[in-house]
Specification:
Layout: H1 3-15, H2 18-25, H3 29-43, E1 48-51, E2 54-57, H4 59-86, E3 94-97, H5 99-111, E4 121-124, H6 129-132, E5 140-143, E6 152-160, E7 162-165, E8 176-178, H7 179-182, E9 187-190, H8 195-206, E10 214-217, H9 220-228, E11 233-236, E12 245-250, E13 258-265, H10 272-285
Parallel strand pairs: 3-4, 3-5, 8-12, 9-10, 9-11
Antiparallel strand pairs: 1-2, 5-13, 6-13, 7-11, 7-12
Helix pairs in contact: 1-2, 1-3, 1-4, 5-10
Family: Belongs to the LysR transcriptional regulatory family.
Organism: Microlunatus ginsengisoli
Pfam families: HTH_1, LysR_substrate
Length: 296
């Protein structure tokens, strides 16, 4: 069954006569009539009949007409989708993001979207799991784990890792503290599998310092709550809470201890430039304090 012949049938049904439909379709009346007869033979149905000098739909024609319209509508939608894909455009874009990336990068971006902007579909991921989904249902990944070789990447934001202490703590009033010194205090942080904790532990291990005494908690807010209760120094990426004092944490080189968040995507993606454009927009919308203007 040809879509062209279905269009002819629908046109005749809408126009009410072969002659009127032929004029709209820029066809001769005999040619259009032959096409309709061919469709009827193919379907083994009589779709139209002459009654009182007028061409009307048979009961089979009335029943078939909605199906013909549906097939044509879906064909038009598929054609439009192919044109979008061929042009490198994305009608829908799916981003896999770690929890921290959702709050630090995606939330500011979505808050600034205009009425006509495409809002990405967001799914959660852990560690490098999101990158494995690039072959399936994900267009872009936001994670603290750097993309593997072969993937395009952009370092979107550098999030400072901050220590928070109570006003009566020995570190209170300090502008900064080196990791080696911080490790000598009782700390409160999220679990060892979290990105912040892995970053802290890697720096502590690299300088050969004895691992810090760490009380593990489920969230950064709870870490600050325990610090406010005098249970240690919270090491988090959150803003200050509970009247705690922020202290900048320095890495082994004396620079601020940061957690890098990356965007990663497949260079062979049919809309790679559109995905890259979204990654750059995410970078621009990230909080200025942690924004990274260079590709990693």
């Amino acid at each position: 069954m040809e879509l062209r012949t279905l269009r002819y049938f629908v046109a005749v049904a809408d126009a009410g006569s072969v002659n009127a439909a032929a004029q709209r379709l820029h066809l001769t009346q005999p040619s259009l009539a032959r096409q309709l007869h061919r469709l009827e033979r193919r379907l083994n149905l009589t779709l139209l009949e002459s009654r009182g000098g007028r061409l009307v739909l048979t009961s089979a024609g009335r029943s078939f007409l909605p199906h013909a319209r549906d097939l044509l509508a879906r064909a038009d939608a598929a054609t439009a989708a192919v044109a979008e894909l061929a042009a490198g455009r994305l009608p829908v874009i799916t981003v896999a993001a770690q929890k921290l990336a959702m709050s630090a990068v995606l939330a500011p971006f979505v808050a600034g979207l205009g009425a006509d902007d495409l809002c990405p579909t967001v799914v959660g991921c852990e560690g490098a799991d999101g990158y494995r989904r690039l072959d399936a249902d994900v267009d872009l990944v936001l994670a603290a784990t750097p993309p593997a070789p072969g993937l395009d990447r952009l370092r979107v934001v550098r999030i400072p890792i901050v220590a928070y202490a109570r006003r009566d703590h020995p570190l209170a009033g300090r502008v900064s503290v080196e990791v080696a010194e911080l490790a000598g205090h009782r700390l409160v942080a999220t679990g060892a599998a979290t990105d912040v904790r892995r970053r802290l532990d890697s720096v502590v291990g690299a300088i050969g310092t004895e691992p810090a005494r760490v009380a593990e908690v489920a969230s950064e807010r709870l870490a600050q709550a325990l610090a406010a209760a005098g249970r240690g120094v919270a090491v988090v990426t959150d803003g200050p809470r509970f009247d705690l004092l922020p202290i900048r944490v320095l890495d082994a080189d004396g620079g601020p201890l940061v957690l890098d968040l990356y965007a990663g995507w497949k260079p062979e993606h049919h809309a790679a430039e559109a995905v890259a454009t979204l990654a750059r927009r995410l970078q621009r919308s990230a909080p200025a304090a942690g924004r990274d203007e260079s590709a990693a």
